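Tutorial, part two.
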Amino acid sequence: MTTHDFFARVWEMLIGRLDGPFNFRLLIQPTVAAILAIRAGLRDARDKRPPFLFWAIFTNSGARHDLPRQGWKDVGKVFMAAIVLDVTYEVIVYRWVYPGQALIVAAVLAFIPYLLIRGPVTRIARRLIRQ
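Running the prediction step on this input gives:
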């Protein structure tokens, strides 16, 4: 199997998750991650913390320990649920577990929505609080 064939098969399997069992998770998990991000963003605005920025973990030495822990606390359960549901899907459909694909799906369904929403919610809430 060539590298091209491998990636084509992985892509086909990832796209195949849009149909079949457990496809409800493709809406529910990002929604839950977004709700958690909104709650955390509002909490950040209320506590006058800086907006959650993923790159702040790398650029702000004071945030290196607090931000990842806080982010994982908020989105960790959704991430783990995404992994469990995807592994269950893989066992039912493919009769095998592909851990790399489960991690990709969980990141797309949980982490990415969380990272994209929390910072902007904090900024918007701050502006509304000032007014």
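The chain has a mean pLDDT of 84. In part three we will examine how such features are distributed along the chain.
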